[in-house]
């Protein structure tokens, strides 16, 4: 769960040595390769799921590496777990209430502690994470690789740049009003999230 989704403007570190310009990276992936994986490892059961219903955009001003805006959005209905009964429970009002809250979002507020090694940057990204209608401020570690001119090599039909984002972090379901303190033998309170995304900036 993971609207991780991210906000991954950590590549600012890699971008800071390029010629000054503003780049917007689109994270709606036509290949359907972008994904977020979530895991809840309780004593009796380990629940693993994924989603590819990811969109959003991140804009970076390469002349001012602190100027990063954007958000990552996950369509809640695209969350998948192997067991169909679990999927119905997940959709329901007692759990994620997807009908009322169709989106999971992460909106960037601030990028801190940027570090750079070649074309790869790491940073801590602070933002507003919204799940089941509850918004919390969280900070997630991000690793980003800026790949100028690689969009077409990934299978796109246009020339352009890529921003490849990786992150692993944890959430607590009780913080978002998801059956707090209930069913902890089968559904852990802690949610492990891993995201792998590529954003595209086509050239005009």
Order of helices and strands: HEEEEEHEEEEE
Q: So, CATH architecture?
A: Beta Barrel
- Portion of residues in beta strands equals over 45%
Globally, the shape reads globular
The neighbouring-strand order within the major sheet is: 1-4-5-6-7-8-9-10-2-3
What Rg is obtained from the alpha carbons, in whole angstroms? Answer: 17 Å
Structural class: mainly beta
* Strand segment count: 10
Oligomer: single chain
- Sheet bearing the most strands, described? 10 strands, antiparallel
| N/C terminus separation | 34 Å
Blueprint (SSEs and pairs):
Elements: H1 12-15, E1 22-26, E2 35-41, E3 46-51, E4 54-61, E5 68-75, H2 84-91, E6 103-117, E7 120-131, E8 134-147, E9 160-172, E10 190-202
Q: Can you walk through the features of this model?
A:
By secondary structure, the protein is mostly beta strands. The chain has one domain: Lipocalin (Beta Barrel), CATH 2.40.128. The chain is 6% helix and 50% strand. It has two helices and ten strands, in the order αβββββαβββββ. It has helices at 12-15, 84-91; strands at residues 22-26, 35-41, 46-51, 54-61, 68-75, 103-117, 120-131, 134-147, 160-172, 190-202. It has a ten-stranded antiparallel sheet with strand order 1-4-5-6-7-8-9-10-2-3. The longest helix has 8 residues, at 84-91. The protein starts with 11 loop residues before the first helix and ends with a strand.
């Amino acid at each position: 769960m993971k609207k991780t989704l991210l906000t991954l403007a950590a590549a600012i570190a890699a971008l800071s040595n390029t010629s000054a310009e503003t780049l917007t990276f689109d994270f709606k992936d036509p290949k359907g390769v972008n994904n977020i994986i979530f895991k809840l490892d309780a004593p009796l059961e380990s629940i693993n799921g994924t989603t590819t219903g990811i969109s959003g955009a991140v804009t970076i001003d390469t002349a001012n590496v602190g100027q990063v805006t954007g958000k990552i959005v996950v369509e809640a209905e695209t969350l998948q777990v192997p067991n169909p009964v679990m999927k119905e429970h997940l959709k329901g009002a007692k759990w994620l209430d997807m009908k009322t809250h169709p989106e999971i979002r992460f909106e960037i507020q601030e990028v801190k502690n940027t570090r750079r090694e070649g074309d790869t940057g790491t940073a801590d990204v602070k933002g507003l994470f919204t799940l089941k209608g509850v918004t919390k401020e969280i900070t997630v570690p991000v690793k980003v690789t800026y790949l100028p001119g690689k969009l077409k090599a990934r299978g796109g039909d246009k020339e352009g740049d890529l921003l490849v984002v990786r992150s692993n972090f944890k959430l607590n379901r009780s913080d978002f009003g998801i059956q707090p303190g209930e069913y902890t033998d089968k559904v852990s309170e802690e949610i492990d999230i891993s995201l792998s995304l590529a954003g595209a900036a086509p050239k005009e």
